[in-house]
Amino acid sequence: MSQANYSRANTLKKAFQACSVEPLEPAEMERYYVDLSPVRKTSAVDSVSTILDFQEAGDFSTILFTGHRGCGKSTELKRIQKQWREDYFVIYLEVNEETDINDASYTDLYLIVIKQVEFELRKLGLSFDAQLLRNFEDWFKEITKETEETVEKSVSLTGEATLGPKAPFIAKLLVKVMAQIKGSNKQKNTIRQTLEKDLSRLKADINLLLDDAYVRLRTKFPPCKGLLIIFDNLDLVTPGVAEHLFFDYAAQLQELHCTLIYLVRQECPRNTRRDELPLRKHLCYSSDRETEFVGDNSEYKTF
Questions:
Q1: Distance (Å, whole) CA 26 – CA 28
Q2: 62 CB contacts (<8 Å, ≥6 apart)?
Q3: How far, in Å, are 30, 115, 129, 283 from residue 118 at the CA level?
Q4: What's the sign of the alpha-carbon dihedral 21, 25, 30, 34?
Q5: Within a 10 A sphere around the Cβ of 14, how many other Cβ atoms?
Q6: pLDDT given at position 210
Q7: What share of the chain is helix, strand, coil (3-state, %, to 5)?
C-alpha cells in the first residue's frame, strides 16, 4: 500500500482496524520492522545467524527456536529467511498448511521436506537425478499400493498449487498422501504405520535426493551452502505431539541431510523432561528472557 492509499489512524478504533498481528513478510521488513534490540535480548537470533555463518558448505544442523506466544518468533524467522537467502536455498514452511497440526508425526515432516524440495527445484527448471527419483517412486508405489491411474484420479480433484503439467509422479503421489494424512484418521494411521515399517529405506532415499538437490543447486548457484528449511507453526501442536516429535523421535528429526529450524512450543523444553531433551544441537529462545542450549553437554545458558 502506497502512502497515498492510506491515512494515519487518529482514533483507537481506527488504529485497531489498521493493525495486523500477522508475521511480517520479507518484503515488508524494511518498511515495518522495528529494531527492539536496545531493550530486548537478541542472543537467540544472533546464535542462529552465527551457526549459519560458521557452517561449511554441505554441512547441516538442527535448530530449535522457541519463545512466548506473540513475541515475534515468526517475524524473526522471516528475517532469517531474508538474511540468508544469498547463502542458502531457503524453504519456509507453515506446517499447519501441510499436515494435521493436532496429530503431526515425524514421518509427516520427512514427506513435507521432499515434497517441497522437489517443487522448489522444479520452479528453477531443475530436477532430481532420474534413477534416484525412479527408485524412490517405485518403492513408494509398492508400499502404498498406488498406481499412476489412482494417483492421477485423486490429484485432479485437489488443485494443489505445487502441481503442474511437468510435475513428476512422486509429486502427485506425495500430494495425495499428505491430503490423506491431513483429512482421514484411518488412512493417516495406515500410511504412517507403513512408512515406519521401512523407515530406514524412507530416510535413505530422501537423503539421497537431498544430496542430489544440493549438488544441483551448487551447480546453478555456486555460493549456495545448502538447503535451509524453516518449519514455522510447530509451536501450535499439542503438548503430546510436541513430546512425540522432540523427545521420542528427536533423533529422526536430526537425520535429514539439510539444515532445519523447527519453531517449537515454549513449554516443551521447559517441562520436567527438559534435561532429557535429545535434540542437543542448538536450542534458542526468542523472548524477553532467553535461554539458549548449545552443544552436547546438557548445559543451558540463560541471558
A1: 5
A2: 253, 254, 259, 260, 262, 279, 281, 282
A3: 31, 5, 11, 28
A4: positive
A5: 12
A6: 98
A7: 55, 10, 35
Residue 51's Cβ-side half-sphere holds a number of Cα atoms within 13 Å equal to 26
- The distance of Cα 128 from the centroid of its chain, to the nearest Å, equals 20
Return the HEC string of 266-285.
CHHHHCCCHHHCCCCCEEEE
Give the span between the Cα atoms of 226 and 186, in whole angstroms.
37
Task: Write the DSSP symbol of residue 40.
Answer: S
Question: Where does residue 73 rank: exposed (0-12), middle (13-18), buried (19+ CB within 10 A)?
Answer: buried
Q: CA dist 161 to 89, 123, 143, Å?
A: 20, 12, 26
Place of cell 491430503: 179
How many angstroms from the chain centroid is the CA of residue 269? 19
Nearest to 200 by CA among 137, 117, 139, 259: 139
Grouping H, G, I as helix, E, B as strand and the rest as coil, residue 133 is helix
Distance, C-alpha 84 to centroid of its chain: 15
Series of mean pLDDT values for 10-residue runs along the chain (303 residues): 59 80 69 65 76 93 81 82 93 92 93 96 95 95 88 68 77 90 84 93 97 97 96 90 88 93 71 50 45 36 27
Q: Which three cell numbers stand for residue 156?
A: 485432479
Cell of 159: 488443485
* Strands 282-285 and 62-66, bridge-based pairing: parallel
